Amino acid sequence: MNGSGTAPAVPRPAYRRLSVEQRRSQLLAAALGLFAQRAPEDVSLDDVATAAEVSRPLVYRYFPGGKQQLYEAALRSAADELEQCFAEPESGPLTQRLGHALDRYLSFVDQHDAGFSALLQGGSVVETSRTTAIVDEVRRAAAQQILRHLGEPEPSPRLRTTVRMWITAVEAASLIWLDEDKRPTLDELRDWLVDHFVALLTATAARDPQTARVMRAALKGEAPDGPAGELARRILPVVSEAAHLL
Amino acid sequence: MNGSGTAPAVPRPAYRRLSVEQRRSQLLAAALGLFAQRAPEDVSLDDVATAAEVSRPLVYRYFPGGKQQLYEAALRSAADELEQCFAEPESGPLTQRLGHALDRYLSFVDQHDAGFSALLQGGSVVETSRTTAIVDEVRRAAAQQILRHLGEPEPSPRLRTTVRMWITAVEAASLIWLDEDKRPTLDELRDWLVDHFVALLTATAARDPQTARVMRAALKGEAPDGPAGELARRILPVVSEAAHLL
């Protein structure tokens, strides 16, 4: 409307120039936002173009393979982000480190919501052996991080299996949590999952010498006012019924 | 070669007359046998016809929807069989009942092998929202049976979630077990999974009054020479390191 002026034109945001990498990230972020709200089969490339405020041909230029390629790229990007969640310095009580990693993981779950559910629940039209492989890679990365913190790069089969079982159980709990309107609170869920980790490892320690060694070392590093201490004190009245078993 | 005799003809097994239901069961059994050995995408209707010693048109007559229909019918049949595994009388210590159900479940896993893995690992070409729904139904049936044995038809969210987490962890352990040439033995795996059940419920009991009530009642029914007693005695030396936490 003011086209006769001499002032430099202010670029409109929708047409701002982005590098290839920036544009790709922008499209992936828009896609992840949509996948967080609805099932992958209900997200079209048109929707992504609208959400990112770009033209449909531009989306196709970046993802010539269509929705499947976009979905896999978005998944890849989410997987990378998720793997970052597991990085944690090797200091402090083990339950505290696990709690920090779970905080980041559960925030990711909270943020990606429907996309996280669709991915893990299976049966989606966009699920392929490639998407399954990406998810498995994230699980493996999580297991490796935990074993590193446990100080066992060469874990016994039982220790390794226990860690993988707990990771699967955490996924199940996350899906149920999303399904039940995110109750209990994220903090309560985190504390509970840490308790489960301690309980599973303790049970495995009863049958596996390596796990027993790991647990003894880990328990020494725990503080009385930390999660392991609280768990121990809360469990005592329950297991006092089991005195006849000893 | 002896066609001129007057003795009644002995029917050849491949052409014996079966009722529709018997024939259908025979084809499903043949299909399940093949799915146990290789991935669903590597099983053709020809293979099923060969394995069942019938003609290909006959397989198509029973499953006009082709492989997808056959796979879903085989899955349905396996799911029914699996749900039978969970039926257990409500008497005796809880860990014993759980052990019996796990014995049957793990025998099923042992027997169906590759088919079980393919089904649960996802990303298969025959996986659809319908197959996912069948698997979820089995999980729900397992959870209901367990809650019935715990005497809690109206479980608290935490109790229900814990049971579902354990079921998921059992599935994960089963897949790892198949992947690791079925080691440890089925009996050792069963005992270990029972231990994990006791440990998870005990951890949840620390934060959930209903679960605490269930656990107290269950522990009273356990025998000193049973799984819970053995677990308690084996755990003691490990948690003795945690005295500073109390």
UniProtKB/TrEMBL annotation, chains A, B:
Pfam families: TetR_C_46, TetR_N. It comes from the Bacteria. InterPro entries: DesT_TetR_C (IPR054129), Homeodomain-like_sf (IPR009057), HTH-type_TetR-like_transc_reg (IPR050109), HTH_TetR (IPR001647). Residues 44-63 bind DNA. Keywords: DNA-binding, Transcription, Transcription regulation. The keyword Iron does not apply. SUPFAM superfamilies: Homeodomain-like. One of its GO terms (molecular function) is DNA-binding transcription factor activity. Residues 21-81 form the HTH tetR-type domain. The keyword DNA-binding applies. This is TetR family transcriptional regulator. It comes from Streptomyces noursei.
